[in-house]
Amino acid sequence: MLGLSRIARDLCPRLRKYGPWYDINVYSGLPSRQECQHTRGLLLSGNNNHISSEAGRDTGARGCISNPDAVVLNSWDSSYTMEKSKERTEVVLLATGSFNPVTVMHLRLFELARDYLHSTGNYKVVKGIISPVSDGYKKKGLVEGQHRLSMAQLAAQTSDWIKVDAWECLKKDWTETVAVLRHHQQHQLLGKNDEGNMEKKSGSRKGNKRKRDSNCQDIPDSICAESKAVPQVKLLCGADMLESLGTPNLWKPEHIVEIVSSFGLVCITRMGSDARKFIYESDILWKYRNNIHLVEEWITNDISSTKVRRALRRGMSVRYLLPDPVLDYIKNHDLYSEESEEKNSGLILEPLMRNTKKPQ
Q: How does it assemble (predicted)?
């Protein structure tokens, strides 16, 4: 390190006039508390020949932004930040629901959740998935799944990271949310395994050179492929879905436990709801509260599919509440009339039907 210091001193004649070189520390690791206090305000400036006190260093540091000649030494911070960025957990955000129809607010949920998770410094969102529910859900006013799927696909065309998955929607029977989460988590696992197998095949070809992760240089390919972290699938929802967890017989308690413990929730709050209080009043949610991420929506938006359908039935404009291609699709297929709103009227919601069946 002393040799590097001498080289830097020789190459930077501006620095030599500001006192002994030992005032400038080059760290191979994190600094001690004493060293950190010594260098925290260290500033080398053409207008300050010597900084004699901690107060002087702090004053100089505050002026650093406005002084183009100033040089702040923070040699270990950038490498530490880069190392932390590599440790972030990859996340796939999964949103389930009717999407009847999909609105701009549904897309906003993904953007808000991604911004929040990235801001924690612990996560990196790699994908968003919209999974419309099947017709077997039997919700009142639910139009055919093929229409809802097509509208969701049109809406997702405006995003480069949100995709639509048809696996759940095209099933005849309703699929429980926890099973949808399991399906997509398994898909992520299989995807990683396929990626590892492809790398192994391409690397075994004669004369085909491939780059390998520096962490895997001395590890067999089979182990190295398995060691790559699989993205975590987290359930993305609004406050209304979170609060529905307290509706009797709508969710199985064991499914709620699995969702919040094994996958996790990212919930976008809304006006008129108190998600924190709801979590506090639920023993299950409180137990796994550290795996529930509450995201504040500061630009309030009260758009809902229910309100959009009501406006459409009454012949009112819903432009700018839906992506334009979705609005065009609704008009072309004459969706959401008084007749369509009565669909499934009188039927019991499928999860309520299943969960209230008496054991034989």
A: Homohexamer. Interacts with ADPRT/PARP1.
Q: How far is CA 313 from CA 231, 303, 337, in A?
A: 42, 16, 5
* Among candidate residues 123, 142, 126, 122, the one with its CA nearest the CA of residue 134: 142
Beta bridge partners of 44: 71
Confidence band of 85 (pLDDT split at 50, 70, 90): low
The DSSP bridge pattern shows strands 265-268 and 292-295 to be: parallel
pLDDT digits (tens, 9 = 90+) for 194-244: 665 555 555 544 444 444 443 344 434 433 444 468 999 999 999 999 999
State both tokens at 18. Answer: 């500001």
